[in-house]
Design a protein that fits this description.
By secondary structure, the protein is mostly helical. The protein contains 10 helices and no strands. It has one domain. Helix 4 packs parallel to helix 7 and helix 6 runs antiparallel to helix 7. The two termini are 22 Å apart.
C-alpha cells in the first residue's frame, strides 16, 4: 500500500494542475492575510486575531477542488486502466489515490499555515494585538492543515465516484455555497454537519456553540471520505473501464 500511495504522490508532483491549484491556494491565503493586516487598523481583539489566523484554512476549499480533479482525472485521461492493471483490487486502488491526495493536501495546508504564521504573527505583534497562546496558535494552524488534507481526500473519493471533473467541481461548489447555507438556515442543528460547518470547525471556529469541536468535526469529515471511498470502489468494480 505504501508503494501505491507513493505512486499517487508521483502522479501529483508531475501534473501541472497540482502545482497550479497549490499555488492558487497558498497565494489566495497570503493575499487575504496581507490585505487584512494592511487595511484593518482595528485588528486587535482576540476574536479578530483568531479569525485572521484561521484564514489559512481557506486552502481547504481549493484542495477539495484539487481532489475532485485528481479523482475524476483518472477517467478523463484514461490512466485508470493502467492503474487497475497494476492494482486490480479496486478498493486498494481508490484508497491509494485518496491517501495520496490526503498527503498532498496536507503539504499545501502546512505551507499555507506556515506562511500565514510567518507573516501574521510578527505583524500582529507590531500592532499590539492580543495574540493567542503558542498552543492556541498551533491548534489553529494544525486544524487548518488537517482540513486541507481531509478536503483533498474527500474530493478525490467524490471525483472517483462521479468520474466527471467539471460536474464534480460544480457539484462541490454548489454544495458549499448554495446547499450548505440553505440547510443551515432552514434546519436547526444541521449546519454543523455540512461541509462548510465542518471546515470552519476544523480551521479555527471553536467558541462558536453552533459548531462541533475540532476533533469531532475531523472525525465526521473522515467518515464522509471513507464512505465515498467505499462507494467509489464498489462502483468502479461494476463499471467497464
Amino acid at each position: 500500500m505504501t508503494r501505491l500511495v507513493g505512486a499517487e504522490l508521483l502522479k501529483l508532483r508531475t501534473t501541472r494542475t497540482f502545482w497550479a491549484l497549490s499555488g492558487s491556494a497558498v497565494g489566495l491565503v497570503l493575499l487575504i492575510v496581507v490585505l487584512s493586516l494592511a487595511l484593518d487598523d482595528q485588528l486587535r481583539s482576540p476574536t479578530d486575531v483568531r479569525s485572521l489566523l484561521a484564514t489559512a484554512g481557506i486552502a481547504g476549499l481549493l484542495t477539495l477542488v484539487l481532489g475532485v480533479v485528481v479523482g475524476a482525472g483518472e477517467y478523463r485521461h484514461g490512466t485508470i486502466a493502467s492503474t487497475l492493471l497494476v492494482t486490480p483490487q479496486r478498493l486498494r486502488a481508490v484508497s491509494a489515490m485518496v491517501g495520496g491526495c490526503f498527503l498532498g493536501g496536507l503539504a499545501i495546508g502546512l505551507l499555507a499555515a506556515g506562511l500565514t504564521a510567518l507573516i501574521a504573527l510578527p505583524w500582529l505583534s507590531a500592532k499590539d494585538a492580543v495574540l493567542p497562546s503558542a498552543g492556541g496558535s498551533l491548534e489553529i494552524f494544525a486544524g487548518g492543515a488537517l482540513y486541507a488534507a481531509l478536503a483533498a481526500a474527500l474530493g478525490a473519493a467524490f471525483g472517483a465516484l462521479l468520474r466527471n471533473q467539471v460536474a464534480g467541481v460544480v457539484i462541490v461548489l454548489v454544495l458549499i455555497f448554495v446547499v450548505d447555507p440553505a440547510l443551515s438556515a432552514l434546519l436547526e442543528g444541521v449546519g454543523q454537519f455540512t461541509l462548510t460547518g465542518l471546515g470552519i470547525a476544523m480551521s479555527g471556529g471553536e467558541g462558536d456553540t453552533s459548531l462541533l469541536p475540532r476533533g469531532v468535526a475531523a472525525l465526521v469529515w473522515a467518515l464522509y471520505a471513507v464512505l465515498l471511498t467505499a462507494l467509489a470502489a464498489i462502483f468502479t468494480a461494476r463499471r467497464d473501464i
